[in-house]
Amino acid sequence: MPNYRRASIKGGLFFFTVVLENRSSHLLVEQIEWLKSCYRLACERRPFETVALCVLPDHLHAIWALPENDADYSIRWSMIKSGFSRGLKPQTQSRSLLAKREKGIWQRRYWEHAIRNQADLERHIDYVHFNPVKHGHVSRVSDWPHSSFHRFIERGWLAPDWGGDVKEMDGTFGE
User: Fold this and answer.
1) Which stretches within the chain are classed as H helix?
2) Binning pLDDT at 50, 70 and 90, where does residue 1 land?
């Protein structure tokens, strides 16, 4: 089994992509209130600041700022993922999943990236907020309800029409 090396930066700023096992699922938006509850509980138990967040049907993107003396984002994701999974009805599981005490809802791993500087942070915030448009869920960023984009508008950090209308844009946007 590979030994994944994760960045360990106390007080770090990190971008994450966390994905469901079934990429055709809409579970995260169908169960958005339960996900919010699990997310809030993890934040209460192991505080962190959510800089930006977008929940899509099958994955989510988040940017977190960890406390000054803490580098353990893994425990936080474990709390969110396991709490969310525990609250769902059991599904048929393989022996492998049962042995690992998993329900097969989430992909086992997630992507993390340590934010390097202000420009890197701004690029990742833009990526988080534009993602629903990129995946074809909406034509305007402001139309997606499960995003911190609305908080950015309330605080005057972004204009309500930021990102334009996909019908007006040329070019390709890929991952």
Assistant:
1) 27-30, 32-45, 73-86, 95-99, 118-134, 149-154
2) very low
- The structural domains of the chain, with segments of one domain joined by +, span 13-91+103-165
* CATH superfamily, region 13-91+103-165: Transposase IS200-like (3.30.70.1290)
Quote the CA–CA distance of 34 and 42 in Å, as a whole number: 12
Alpha-carbon distances of 60 from 12, 53, 162, rounded to whole Å: 20, 7, 20
pTM score of the predicted model: 0.85
More confident residue, 120 or 4: 120
Q: Does 28 score more than 80 pLDDT?
A: yes
Helix (H) or strand (E) holding 156: none
Distance of CA 96 to the CA centre of its chain: 26
Contact 141/129 with Cβ under 8 angstroms? yes
- Residues 157-172, buried b or exposed e (16+ Cβ, 10 A)? ebeeebbeeeeeeeee
Angle, vertex CA 35, rays to CA 18 and CA 98, nearest 5: 70
- Residues ≥6 apart with Cβ < 8 Å to 81: 18, 105, 106
Q: How many whole angstroms separate alpha carbon 51 and alpha carbon 61?
A: 11
